[in-house]
Amino acid sequence: MAVSSALFLLLLFTALFCGSAYALPLCIGAIFAAMITLGAGFWFAQSGSRLRRGLFFAAGLLTAAALAFGSAYRVDQYGLHRVADPYDGKSGEAILTVQEIESSTAYSTSLLTTLHSFDGQEMEITGRVRLPYAARPAVGDRIALTAELSVLSPDGKTLAECYDYSQGIFFEAAADVEGYRLLANDPHSADGVFAALRQWLGRRFYPYLSDTDAGLVTALLTGDKSGLSDELSDRFRNLGISHTLAVSGLHLSILCGSLLWIFKKLHLPRRLRFPVLFPILLFYMLLVGSPSVYRAGGMTLLLLVSYHFGRRQDPLTSLFAAVATICLLSHESVLDVGLLLSFFATFGILLIAVPLTARMQSLPALPRWALSALTVTGAATLFTLPFSVWYFEEWAILSPLANLLLVPLVTGLLYLAPLLLLLSPVAPLATAPALLIRLLSAILQTAGKFFGGSDHLLLPMSYPPIQWMAAAATVAVLLLCLFRKTRPLTLAVAVAFLLSAGGYCTLQGYALLDRQSTELISDGENGCIAVTEGTRVMLIDHSAGGYAFLSAAATAGETDPMIRTDTLVLTHYRYRQIASVTRLLKEGHLEFLILPKPAEEDYNTAHTLAERAAYAGCRVLWYSKEDACIGYHGTEIRFTFVEWDDYLPRTVTVTQNGNRETYPLPIE
């Protein structure tokens, strides 16, 4: 079952990610391999049982290949995105129902919607709509607006597009500057009911907790991150524990473990525990509604079924069966990086950590707990590292230590949050769990601020030595598996690789901390000033706004994998900057966009730039003649403006480490 499921997942992932044209040769190869396996089974079989196992194994491989081919073919020919293909890149009137408000700022709003019709053509697909203005429609509202449609496909050109597709987002629509029209409201729709329930649960925390603490426990309990600050999310990411904010197997295991403990204390008969737990678990999965919780919930339900009927529980088979079932029902889920990370982390824990932990039973309690936690973290890290390199190109150096020390605090919050919800109607009883939540949250946030405030904790995996080290570690693991020396030595290889890679990049990072320089980048017609401070680069652009020059300038400033361009300052507005800055944002270059105060004729360009940046999570700042000084780490940037116009910068002066350089800016 596990081998067949693994083959199905591999073929389906490759066929969708690389394009469905690869599905047929892949499946033919898999069927050929199955035939060879069947022949080998006949050749080496010395008893009926071996022959039967060979037949079952070959049949499983054939079934997996057929399912993968059929799934990829159905997605390619009849997928929901095909419905909107004729309207890709066209503008028209869209009739939509709001499912979720993803983000809302002063410059833009992002909505997750169901598209019912576009330009008069009826369809029923899910996608994202971007509004270039602030709006707060209610979940369940049916609205009409004019927008340009962009259809996503499973073999998207970027990982971000593949991820959106994996989440069931089949289109993106950019609305015009006009407002939407409210057609109807259905607060009793399934999306509206669960969204309202999540909001209601979040509001129950606010009388007892601060906004920060309430946003944190709401994200941990329901997966709703709307109340979570960007600063706290970045710190969790730098520490490598951002997975705790996405409801997954950790959260479900705590929920099921707590309920089973309560059932046992209440002396509930064993035959009634699963019938009571099943609807609770199913309701929680629907409440959260993420692929990772469906994976964890499916595996948990399979284990509970075997437990209920007294069968031998096989976590590995349950894991593979749960993920294969999810991807069979929803083919695009195989591209979901969250599902892949969750699956491989669990696979590594079951394959390596569980057997090793079982051998530690003779140790004292404290060393056993510490070694078990390190083993679990190391196994999960080893099996998720390839996807971290592929999708994120970085790894959090403090991830093992943070998982060892901080995840128990998160676990404590997960136990206390439901207790506070139950006791919230009675204020005196709710005081104690609220106090403990505030204490654990304060410790967690203090540790995050102290340890997770630096981006140097993210290990860039693009250093050539690290790639060779990773290849050597992979070969070592394969050889160990071949000679059946997998569990202890595999973990040792993983730890050695992570320590050596982390040490190498840490030394490289600290060597760059004191680096300061200012460079004028020019190609004759365009100019840009690159200001380097440690591992960060600011670009002060006074070019014609073309993407080719801006991209080349950003790349020229990043002379080391740890150095990244994070700030772009514009001195003049050009309409073509909209497309250029948008591409830079998609490439992940920018964290800050600093814009001059726009004149009346530049207002639309400035507004669109600010909207695109805000949507991408990039902070937007402004400068003007009255506020013409910008601080960038240890550097001061000061602008002077022409006398007859308050909107045209004339010079820029960069003061760095006591040295001052002034650059004239072109005035048109």
Provide the β-strand percentage band: 15-25%
Strand tally is 18
Q: Report the end-to-end length measured between terminal Cα atoms.
A: 70 Å
- The secondary structure category is alpha+beta
DSSP summary: helix tally: 22
Number of domains: 4
Helix share, percent: 40-55%
Order of the strands making up the biggest sheet: 9-10-11-12-13-14
Which stretches are low in confidence, meaning pLDDT under 50 for 5 or more residues running? none
Quick one: overall form? globular
Write down the Rg: 28 Å
The description of the largest β-sheet is: 6 strands, mixed
Provide the residue-averaged pLDDT: 76
Describe the overall structure.
It is globular, with a radius of gyration of 28 Å. It has 4 domains: 2-78; 83-187, OB fold (Dihydrolipoamide Acetyltransferase, E2P); 211-464, no CATH class; 516-664, Metallo-beta-lactamase, Chain A (4-Layer Sandwich), CATH 3.60.15.10. 55% of the residues lie in helices and 19% in strands. It is an alpha+beta fold and 668 residues long. Helix 21 links the parallel strand 12 and strand 13.
Can you give keywords for this protein?
alpha+beta; OB fold (Dihydrolipoamide Acetyltransferase, E2P); 4 domains; 6-stranded mixed sheet; 5-stranded mixed beta barrel; 18 strands
In short:
The protein is an alpha+beta fold and 668 residues long. It has 22 helices and 18 strands.
What is the strand and helix layout of this fold?
Layout: H1 2-18, H2 23-44, H3 48-78, H4 80-84, E1 91-104, E2 109-118, E3 121-131, E4 141-151, H5 159-166, E5 171-175, E6 181-185, H6 190-203, H7 211-222, H8 230-239, H9 249-265, H10 270-288, H11 291-308, H12 315-329, H13 337-358, H14 365-392, E7 394-396, H15 399-405, H16 407-423, H17 427-451, E8 458-460, H18 464-482, H19 486-512, E9 516-522, E10 527-533, E11 536-541, H20 547-557, E12 564-570, H21 577-586, E13 592-596, H22 603-615, E14 619-623, E15 629-632, E16 635-641, E17 649-656, E18 659-664
Parallel strand pairs: 3-5, 11-12, 12-13, 13-14
Antiparallel strand pairs: 1-2, 1-4, 2-3, 4-5, 4-6, 7-8, 9-10, 10-11, 15-16, 16-17, 17-18
